[in-house]
Amino acid sequence: MLCAGKKSYFAAAVCIITVTSMLAVSYLQLQRLPHQPKVIQEGRRCRGKIANSTITALKGNKTFIISPYFDDRESKVTRLIGIVHHEDVEQLYCWFCCQPNGKIYVSKAKIDVHSDRFGFPYGAADIVCLEPENCDPTHVSVHQSLHGNTDQLPRFEIKNRKAETFSVDFTVCISTMFGNYNNVLQFIQSMEMYKILGVQKVVIYKNNCSHLMEKVLKFYVEEGTVEIIPWPINLHLRVSSEWQFMQDGTHIGYYGQITALNDCIYRNMERSKFVVLNDADEIILPLKHPDWKAMMNSLQEQNPGTGVFLFENHIFPETVSSGMFNISSWNNVPGINILQHVYREPDRKDVLNPTKMIVDPRKVIQTSVHSVLRAYGKSANVPMDVALIYHCRKALQRDLPRESLIRDTTLWRYNSSLIKNVNKVLSQTILRAQN
């Protein structure tokens, strides 16, 4: 016995504490050691086919890899954004191939399934692996075992390896475009409003859309505003167009929207000062400032140390029209004319309005749709007299009489520039095809 011969209560207490401490240290060492990269092969060239799809299924273990990103905010790790089955995936390993010495390191992954699964069996996950200390790997493979042949594993390029100077101030992340999306007019209006407000890049995770919408996307891609990320998630999982699991046999909600949002944050972490998380039918309208840059400068000055800014969503029902801005050349374009919808629903008693976000991506670890799950620093709710989200869609409070709605013409401050810019896009896309 380690404590034999000690008869006093004090000595017994010391003894118990000592043993407990030793066991705790041993346990922590056991927990840490499997995560430390270790060499399993030497003198090999990096092989294996480089993955070029947005979503890559790993063989037989209910794991899908989107993309790995270098993350040194706490320690030197590779963080893979992925989708996993929350119960069936328990163990994964990162295989790093270090050139030119040809050493292959294996690091046990920490699998962190995001808490916002909304009941679905599959959810967004961070697959985090410590990197070798004396190697800056450019690619990583993922396997369910310490043993295997790297030649048979897909290799993923590790992004964000080099810090970059911000190329843009604002990037909007739209996820996901699905359901043969055809709200063409409102999409163009949103895009042009984003540009008026200071956006330089819009990233769209596209599952599918109409043929007409494809023409519009092609225009914005060629213009340099839009980046399309193919999102064929329905080839891998049974997707739901609902946000909550309905016991209907589907695997993941809203076409994997949360995974796409997290990928978009990391994808733009080194190239965009701010990332805006909202849908294509939502516009953050500043009330006190002319654009987002002036608004964010003011908000950051008032909220030092804050990396997440939450904006209240307000519904402008598409069924209630003002009768203004009935522009004849727009009438044959499918979709909603937002300039005609300036009546918003009042707040509901005891119901909090959902929010969308403008974030500093370098301060975000994990995000959900309406708030971040993990971040460095603080979050701030932006007062409604500073900005609100204009959201033109189906009414939530369908039985409200028109006189109960609030007339809010903030959008009309931009009508002259918006009409001119929308007409320019239509003349080069939709109207040109019709003539």
From TrEMBL:
Keyword terms, alphabetized: Glycosyltransferase, Membrane, Transferase, Transmembrane, Transmembrane helix
Descriptive protein name: Glycosyltransferase family 92 protein
PANTHER family per record: GLYCOSYLTRANSFERASE FAMILY 92 PROTEIN
EC number, UniProt record: 2.4.1.-
Residue intervals passing through the bilayer: 9-30
Gene Ontology CC, one term: membrane
InterPro entries linked to this entry: Glyco_transf_92
Any one Gene Ontology molecular-function term assigned to this protein's record: glycosyltransferase activity
EC class (word): transferase
Membrane topology (UniProt): Single-pass membrane protein
This protein's record includes keyword Phosphoprotein: no
Phylogenetic lineage: Eukaryota, Metazoa, Chordata, Craniata, Vertebrata
Location relative to the cell: Membrane
Family: Belongs to the glycosyltransferase 92 family.
Source organism of this protein record: Sterrhoptilus dennistouni
